[in-house]
Amino acid sequence: MGLFGKGKKEEAAPAAAPAAAPEAAPAPAAAEQEEIRKFEASNLMNRSFECPVCGEKFTAKAAKSTIRRLGSDDDLRPKHEQLDTMKYGVAYCPKCGYASMERYFKDITDSDKDAIRNMQNPEYQEPEGPYTYDQALVRYQQAIKCIEARKNALVSEKAFTYLRTGWLMRGKMECVSPAIEGYDAKMAKLKKIENASLLKAYEGFYEAKQKENYPIAGMDEMTLDFMIAVLAARFEKYDVASKLISNIITDRDVNPRLKDKARELKDVIIAKTKKEEE
Fold first, then answer.
1. The dihedral of CA 62, 46, 190, 138: what is its sign?
2. Model pLDDT for residues 251-276, shown as the tens digit of each residue
3. For labelling alongside 207, which of 1, 56, 151, 227 has CA 20 to 30 A away?
């Protein structure tokens, strides 16, 4: 869910009405949550890793590729049937504490390996069942801690990790029942983490766009520009968003679906700026 309203299925036309920011979907009932957890457990597999820092061999849970994708939010967060894949994707060595998104796990220099070895890392044990959101957040936080300790990590790696942390928090908000005690305070706390993470992602990807070669975090130039534009609009940086959107709309080689989404975002930005000028 996002700037354009409700989350969209891939085959659906974009919704017209804008919203200020993503809002959490209604949380599933307890019985439904148990069914979701069973479904999740049956659709996970163990992926093997060898730590490039200490050589430890370990496994981490991963979602099976057969999970049906339902669509995506406006900032490209993928949505799958009864399973939030954002909880998975961080490899975390239980011996030395090195953690990273899987796509970057092996990409570490010798000097950065020394930096990880010099870190004070808490003991870590792989959970037996599906990761809870809190367990997944611990893994993301450790990955960010490791990136902060490394001098040679790509800017886009840090941005990508923050992006997925923000998406993770959005997924957790969708699972919080309004009936729990302190619902408003809990949601506000999660929203704060989501916004802080997405702001870091925006800043990092904007910098990576100036410094790194494509693909960046697996994205081509126009896809990355669109995502940066969505994040820029979220944080009311409309001048940045408008410039990026204009480049997408005028590029003849851009995928028509992405171009349609860019036009929709342009309309949202125009509506918001007009409202602010009134």
1. negative
2. 999 999 999 999 999 999 999 988 88
3. 1
Q: Which amino acid would we find at residue 217?
A: A
Percent of the chain with pLDDT over 90: 81
Query: DSSP letter string over 146-171?
Result: HHHH-SS--HHHHHHHHHHHHHHHHH
Closest CA to 24 of 1, 58, 53: 1
- Please state, in angstroms and as integers, the Cα–Cα distance from residue 17 to each residue in 26, 258, 272, following that order: 19, 18, 11
Length in residues, the chain: 278
CA 102 – CA 107 distance, rounded (Å): 10
Alpha-carbon gap, residue 124 to 117, rounded angstroms = 15
Mean pLDDT of the chain: 90
Tell me how far CA of residue 121 lies from CA of 73, 97, 138, 173, 221, in angstroms.
34, 6, 12, 29, 37
Q: Which residues of 228-248 are buried (b: 16+ CB within 10 A; e: fewer)?
A: bbbbbbbeeebebbbebbebb
Please state the pTM of the whole predicted model: 0.88
Two tokens at 247? 């480049």
Helix axes 183-211, 155-173, angle to 10 degrees: 160
Phi, psi of 165 (to 5 degrees): -65, -45
Q: Which amino acid is present at 39?
A: F
